[in-house]
Design goal:
The protein is of the alpha+beta class. Helix content is 23%, strand content 22%. A four-stranded antiparallel sheet has the order 1-6-7-5, covered by helices on one side. Strands 2-3-4-8 form a four-stranded antiparallel sheet, covered by helices on one side. A two-stranded antiparallel sheet has the order 9-10. β9 and β10 form a beta hairpin. The radius of gyration is 20 Å and the shape is elongated.
Length: 261
Amino acid sequence: MPEGDTLFRTAAGLRPHLVGREVTAARATRPGPQIERVVGSRVDAVESHGKNLVIRFDNGLELRTHMRMNGSWHRYRPGERWRRPPARARVVLEVPGAVAVCFDAPVVELFEQRAEPLHPSLSALGPDLLDPDWGEAEAAEAMRRLRHPARADWPIAAALLDQRAVAGIGNIWRNETLFAERVDPWAPVRELDDATLDRLIATARRLLTQSAGVAPGRTSTKVYRRAGRPCPRCGTVIRSAPLSGEVPRTTYWCPSCQGGS
């Protein structure tokens, strides 16, 4: 599943080709949104919100897509051959000089922008780790949400994936965040002190912003998909185990650096 950094880069790549241009044609697979309603409107914004990509139009409509495991947005020149079969296109937007195609996304919806504050998914998102205006208030809100009683007994590895607590982090960077901070992925949230949660939030944001290319520094994976290989820090064999949930994920960790069974 694409993480927040991937969606941030996708929005940044589409923005110069869509924003300020009039939609000359639009189509979507059925059943699907009545995307033809945006024809003749101007694209006002292309933004990422956690793992959602949102396109806003000047007629008051808003297109939301969520990629889940296999979805992606592509941008082509008019007449250029697509890299995926047209049958896999969920929505197509044409503007002068560019064609934007969303392939394979399971969530594609069009709604009034004024309804966004009540949207069941967007309104529930926690603070976005890639928010350019991130500050003390957003960090405090992320802490408050992680400390919600409903998450007290969750393993921290699961809590970091909950987009209602903090938005944008996915399987790669939550594994890398926990490794960087030497935190046991299976430790319940209630057993971690505030200083540890503060560090996890700050490190997750640092890794995501570096990966998205909006902060200096380079990112590389130390434990993700490295089960059976030596830990780059201590040499202990890296372990992996499934993390149950709505969408199963694999957790990777060093039992020496981080603990855990």
